[in-house]
Each structure stands twice: as structure tokens, then as C-alpha cells.
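User: For a benchmark we're assembling, each entry needs the component sequences followed by a predicted structure for the full assembly. Here are entry 17's components. Please fill in the structure.
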Amino acid sequence: MTEPKTTSVEVNGYSCRVWTAGSGPKLGFLAGFGGLPKWVPFLDALARERTVIVPSLPGFPGGERGHLALDSHLDWLLAVRQILEGAGLAGADLAGSSVGGSLAAEVAALWPAMVKRLALIAPFGLFDENDPATDPWAQRPPDVPALFCANPANWEMLKAEPEGLNSPEWPIEQVRASEAAARIFWPLGNTKLEKRLPLITAPTLLLWGGEDKVMPRSYAGKFAKGITGKTEIKVIPGAGHLAELDKPDEVAAAILGWTR
Amino acid sequence: MKLMWFHLMPYTELPDDFREKNPSVWVDIHSSLFDPRRAHHMYNDFMDELEFAADCGFDAICVNEHHSNGYGLMPSPNLVASSLARRTTDTALCILGNSLALYNPPTRVAEEMAMIDCISGGRLIAGFPVGSPMDTCYAYGQNPSMLRERYLEAHDLVLKAWTEKKTFAFNGRFNQQRYVNIWPRPIQRPHPPIWIPGGGSVETWQWCAEMDYVYCYLSYYGYKAGQATMTGFWNEMAKLGKDRNPYRAGFLQFVGVAETREQALELYAEPAEYFYGRCLHIDPRFAGPPGYATEETQRRGIKGMVSQAADASRDTARYETKFQTLAREMDAIVDKGYVIIGSPDEVVEQLTEVATNLNVGHLMMLLQFGNMSKDLAKYNTQLFAEKVMPRLQHVHSQWEDHWWPQPMEKQERAEPASFHPAAQAAAE
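Assistant: Structure for entry 17:
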């Protein structure tokens, strides 16, 4: 495993952790639902070819309680832009998964010069009442791992408290990650992103886990249809909503290929 | 002490196999189970029961707010309270209460409650709960990450709308109104007493102490389970330098009284088992929206009814155990203290103990619960009023209740015309 370098960016008085690893042209990654309480193999796979830069978003692991300062969608988008700039990602290639994918798409729409090539993994942001996305916040706890990953053990590994840590803060941080996602996307996941998709001119890869139980596959077509730049849809067999946790090498290879 | 009569207004005809065939009594309970023509009778029976309780001399009658809920048919308690204001004379009207973050603009609450205070001649108690996750975040779609902030801001706005004499602009984080100037204004000055129903969060206790509001612990699990929460509350009051005036607190208790304990067991088993078996059948997926329980509450591990449930997202085992161990049969329901039953003597003894041990001056009693019939509810209410109430009223008499409504003098109040439609009179 690569040992990432850790720095931080300050937004509204809260610190956001930034992980950097690898070498080569910069590639940013915004994490999905639940954030990144730990470094994951997917980031290693990206770092083999690129300088991968992973900023935490406010309220997600590494992002303190910064979500509490963000009341509106505009507040969120300005914070994300500030974080990307602070992390040195202005004008770089950008990938994002799930909730992070939605925010990556927003930045590409509002500030086209911020993003060179874009890769989105099952992004939030739309809602189709004829094919509704699953409510990730109304789940019986035992059902959560299998909702986000095709192999539930991948979610469990991400969320398991590191041995010996034994801190009440760890579980609180995981609840906070879910709260931060709720702060942006409650109740339907619909931020009306559809209206802004035509502003995206960056070439955009749309990746979808073949077994995504959160975001219906039909949403990939809606993104492709709305985005002005060139798009390609690629389904990753055997992967769930957080495809990068289930199939790190396949997802990384697709992103590296798209941004090469 | 004050003896208050509380109605949840449960739908009384949920099927026997409700728990087996339905995931939840709340949020997504199926509409096919609701028969509006039966509900016509339920609402009228329930309001008769509330009026009957007022006639029997209870200090207050209480209503509350729930949404998409098979055991609480009052999305708007204000509608019911408004009717009660016309059909009762001296009893206090306790709305417990309006979930402030659900109203847009929140001045709607200030207006409606001011109306009820005016109609009733100043008999209103204004309750402001944050509201359960099921009501607020799921049924009403409120963002759990902003619910408390919105609630607190709405409270500030309502309070200012009641007390500020001039038209003012409210420039809040979530609410902006250029012209706030409610008509009518409440009779009670500076405003109706404010009571806060809440779980066991320390922040709520501290806020009640700071604002000098009554804290109400509305648990369905009775005095034994409530002891820890109320002890926590009084410890916090002591820490903040507040006296132990029992009228700072309210507590909810199910009660069934009969001539003998055996008779009480026989009479109240069915409605109690209906309530705990069917009405509290709640899908755990609606229990814990993230952000509902504050981090401080999570950290301190202090659990009220709702915050306990809200922890489900990070502690499956504890939550599921709680629902598996919830008593659903009469022996256990009584044994655990969810429902106090017995002869008048036995009920007096137990409630004296509750009032003393928990140090509560406002005892809110559910004397109708589950699918209890109107006849039995009236029997329970009347027997309580005649044989139990007189022997409890002296408890805490050394303390003064600073949190009770101050109505207009009786002789100054309007006398609503008795209900006697002309057509009916002609027929007679």
C-alpha cells in the first residue's frame, strides 16, 4: 500500500484533509457516500500512473464538522471549488463517486476551466419518480453493507474501526459522513443537477456498477443525454454502488484510460 | 400537583395480524387500513372523551402532533384544540405541541396558537417539540442535518412574533420575513407558557433551564424506564443552580383503574396489548436519520425514547434488542411499569410514588389508549376523577406552579352558546 502524504485545506474555518500519492499528471478524486475513513486499494491503483489527490469534503471523514457551515447548495459548490483549488486541482482531471461524483459534475458545469476530463461513478443529483433511487438514509442497519457494495465485506472493511483505536469518535464520524450527504441530498438526492448538465463540456466517462442497488442504471443515460461534452457509459460487472470499493482495479483502469 | 388528560387519538381498528403483515405503523402504513367513515366516529368519540375529561375536572386536556401515523390521528392538534376551546370552559388546553421546523413560515404557529389562546380566554399551554424522526424527517421530508437549527430559529421567531409590539423584519438563517406582525396576539402575557417535550438530551435540559421552560418526558415505557431520564434531568438542574420545583417537569403515564386489580387486568389487557403490539410496530429503518441525534447526545450515551432509536444507525444490536424485548403482553406490560393498573387505592399509591420519585408536578395520563372503547375510556376517566384525583392533588402542594396558564377572570370570559341546532330543536 502507498503511504499518502497528508495536507489540509481550510474552508469556513474547518480543516479538510487532502491525501496525495503517486507521481505523474494530477488526478483528483471526490469520495462517495460514507466518505473515506481509510485509504483504499482503488487509490493505490490510480497512484500507479498518476499523482492522485483526494480532498475530503466538509463533514465527511477528514472534513471535520464543516458541513454545519453550509446551508444552501451554492454554499456547498463554492466550498468544493475552494477545496479543489486549495488542493492544487484547478484544471486537472477529476473523478468522483456517488455523492462526490455529483459535486464533481457541478464544478465542471459551473466552472468549465476547473476540470479537464471528468469521470463519474454512479453520481447522485437526479431523481426519476418512474425509476426512483433507493433511500440510503432509511435502511435497517444490517442491510447497509449490501446496499452500497456488491460484496458487503468491502463496505464493512471501509467502516470497521481500526484495531486498538477504541474511540467513541470513530462511529460518530461515520454517522457524520451520512449526515453530510443528507445535508446536500436529503430527501431524494435531487439537486436539480439535470438543469446544469448541458453546461458540462468536459469529456465525461460514466461508470456504473452492474449491481448498483442505489442509483438506477437508467440515470447513466440521463447524464449522457444532458452533458454537452463527449460521454461514454461503462458498466462494471460485479460492482455495487461504490464500484471503486468492489472492483478497484477495473474502475481505476477505466478512469486511467479515459484521462490518459 | 396537576393531573392532565392526554389523548393520542389512535386508529382503533388496525387488524389482528397488523404486525405480521405490515412493516410499520408509521410513515408508510398502508392507506387501505384507513376507513374515513370509521375515522368520523373515532374523531368524534375522542373529542367527546377529551370534553368528558374536562367535565370530570382534570386540570388540562392534552393533544399532540403526528404525521402518517396509525396511533396518532392528529396531524394538526390545533384543529382539535380549537374545537375543545369552544366546548370546555375552565380546563387548560395543552398542545404538546407543534413541531416548529415543519411550519413555513413558523409564524403560522404563532398565529394559530394566539387564536386558540384568544378563543379559550387564555387557557393555552404551548408545546414545542423538535418532533420525532418519523414525523419530521421522513413523513415531512425535513433535512435531519438542519432540523434542530431550524427548530431553534423558528422558536426565536415565534417568541418574538408573540412579544414584539411593532412590525419587525426577521432576518434568519432559514427564515426571512420582511413584515412580521401577527394578528391576533395571545391573551397571556408575555406569552402562553412554553413546554418542551423531548427525549433525554442534555442540550434540551440545558435549554429548558436557560429559557425557564417546562421539560416533558413523553415516554411510552412508563415510570420505571423514565426514572433514569428524570434523575438525569434533575441532576442537570442542580448543576445549573435551579431549584427542584417539580413543576419544571412533566411526565406521561398510561393508567387503568378499576374496582380491583383483577378487574383492571381484565379490562385493560386488550387495549394495552393493542397499543404495544400494533401501535408501536415501527420499522427501524425510520428510527435514525443521521444528524437527528446530536453528536453530544451520541457521545454521552444518554438515551431518550427517540434518541435511543436514532442511534440505530451505528448500533444495530442495541436497537434490535430494544424492540425484541419491548413487552407486548399484559403481564410484562404491567410488570415493566408501562401501564399502571389497579384499584383506586393501588393507583393512588403508585402514582404518588411516581410523582415523588421522578419529582414531577405535571402528570399527563393516558386513560384512553390503544383500541379502548369510549365506554371504557369514560369509566377509567370517571373513576380516576372521583377516587384517585382527589387523593393526589395535594402532592407537591408546597411548590408553586409558575408554568401554568393565566386565563382571563371567569366572569370576563365569553359564554359559548350551547350546541342546539335549530333543525334538531324543531324535531324535538
